[in-house]
Amino acid sequence: MSGPMFLWKTKRGSDIIKYTESIYQLAEMNKKGEGMAEVTTLGLGKTMEKKLHSVGIHSAEELKEIGSKQAVFRLKEKYPGTCVVILYHLEAVIRGCEMKQLEDTCKAELKTYFKNMVSGFEENII
User: Fold this and answer.
1) Which pLDDT band holds residue 49 (cuts at 50, 70, 90)?
2) What is the C-alpha to C-alpha distance for residues 88 and 107, in angstroms, rounded to an integer?
3) In terms of residue numbers, what domain contains 94?
4) Cα Rg for the chain, rounded, in angstroms?
5) Cα separation of 10 and 121, whole Å?
6) Measuring CA to CA, how many Å separate 40 from each of 5, 100, 106, 110?
7) What is the per-residue DSSP string for 14-67?
8) 99: domain CATH number?
9) 80-102, pLDDT tens digit by residue?
10) Nearby residues of 94 by Cβ (< 8 Å), 6 or more positions away
11) What is the rounded distance in angstroms from the CA atom of residue 83 to the CA atom of residue 100?
């Protein structure tokens, strides 16, 4: 892929690489009414693609139907190292934009959701 590459580290230190070129392709497909693409075309990286498949999300359409919050909930259950950045990225993919283009109010709402979700997981562990 020729699009820009972003790299960040989660708290657990694992590298997550994403390509944004396919996000634009997905947005163009949606504009043209061509339907949703497979998860592989979302630019989430092979590791995230495998993780989404492992929690029952196999297409971009499925991701859009369940939403970013439910997707991250499933991921967090199975992969405790899932961070809020994944939630932001999935929401951006669903909206067909870059993560940095998400409105501050959207990010704040997603962050609050994530904090509450993590608190719920921690209460169930104790």
Assistant:
1) confident
2) 7
3) 5-125
4) 14
5) 18
6) 16, 21, 25, 24
7) -EEEEESHHHHHHHHHHHHT--PPBGGGG---HHHHHHHHHTT--BHHHHHHHH
8) 1.10.150.20
9) 999 999 999 999 989 988 889 99
10) 63, 64, 67, 68
11) 16
Q: Look at the chain and report how many structural domains it folds into.
A: 1
* Whole-number Å distance between alpha carbons of 9 and 83: 10
Tokens of 47: 């590791």
Helix, strand or coil, per DSSP, at residue 42: helix
- Give me 115's structure tokens: 């904090």
Per-residue confidence (pLDDT) for residue 13, from 0 to 100:
38
Paired tokens of 89: 């990225």
Two tokens, residue 43: 């630019």
For residue 61, give both structure tokens.
Answer: 């359409």
